[in-house]
Amino acid sequence: MKLTVIGCSGSVPGPDSPASSYLVSADGFHLVLDLGSGALGALQRALDVPEIGAIGLSHLHPDHCMDLCGLYVALKYSPAAPFPRIPVYGPPGTAARMASAYDLPFDPGMEEELEFHAWLGVQTIGPFTVRTAKMVHPVPAYAIRVEHGSKSLVYTGDTGPTDALVELARGADLLLSEAALQDDDQRNPPDLHLTPADAGAQAKRAGVKHLVITHVPPWFDRDTQTDHARRTFPGQVSTATPGAVFEV
After folding, report:
1. Are 218 and 9 in contact (CB under 8 A)?
2. Which residues make beta-bridge pairs with 155?
3. In this protein, which residues make up the domain named Metallo-beta-lactamase (predicted)?
4. 6: exposed, middle or buried (C-beta count within 10 Å: 0-12, 13-18, 19+)?
5. Kind of pairing, strands 151-155 and 54-56?
6. Separation CA 187–CA 168 (nearest Å)
7. Which tens digits make up the pLDDT trace of 72-83?
8. Which residues make beta-bridge pairs with 210?
9. What are the pLDDT digits (tens) for 186-221?
10. Which of 84, 111, 156, 200 has the fewest C-beta atoms lying within 10 Å of its C-beta?
11. What is the model's pLDDT at position 102?
């Protein structure tokens, strides 16, 4: 598998990166994990819109899903339309949420361009086996494990510390983990995001091989967050940056 970072800015787009979006490719199939604010433009540097095989949404906060509105427009109004519908996997209610976001009637909403499915725990998407688990966040949110052959990567989405993430990430080759909060900040709210120490500790408990820190808001420094994650994770730790590619 090849993991390409499309957008990695946490909570809002930053001056050098869109919000969350990651491209997982294998066997000529392209799975997009999240399509947050500003990500669609950057995604088109990696592939054309009709080449998207499927999209998986961790949750329905705008920094993880809102560029589905732009994708809908591209699919509906491109001179090359109509295209085959693109499958979109996400929390229950995703179709209605996206219709509301674009002020569309719920019927048909975006259903003529996008084919919506709810996460079911284990699903086959293209050449991938995809497993999900519910995380702790103010809205329904899922971590996503993508397996291909003997290789696996896990994307946390947004979550506070939880044993469910440790179990989903058990033995993964790569854990793409958010670290949106700073260590030892008494203002950190519970059940919202991870600190670098949290990310490292959960990666260690899960026995992952490679930890990649992402979803750092523009008001914090990515490299500092990554350095702090090394305090609790003894293995390889990298920083997600726009356009970075990781082979799994």
Report:
1. yes
2. 144, 176
3. 18-198
4. buried
5. unpaired
6. 28
7. 999 999 999 999
8. 236
9. 999 999 999 999 999 999 999 999 999 999 999 999
10. 84
11. 98
Q: Is the dihedral of CA 140, 143, 144, 150 positive or negative?
A: negative
Residue showing tokens 């560029």? 67
Integer Cα distance of 173 and 238 in angstroms? 13
- Write out the two tokens for 153: 């990567």
Output the six-digit token pair for 2: 């090849």
For residue 145, CA distances in Å to 95, 133, 148, 170, 182 come to 22, 9, 10, 10, 25
Taken in order 61, 63, 64, 70, the sign of the CA dihedral is positive
Q: What CA dihedral angle connects 125, 167, 185 and 13, to 10 degrees? A: 0
* Amino acid (1-letter code) at residue 86: I
Determine the Cα–Cα distance for residues 169 and 205; give it in Å rounded to an integer: 9
With CA atoms as reference, report the closest residue to 126 among 221, 52, 19, 188: 52
Per-residue pLDDT at 244: 98
Confidence of residue 59 (pLDDT cuts 50, 70, 90): very high
| DSSP letter (8 states) at residue 132 | E
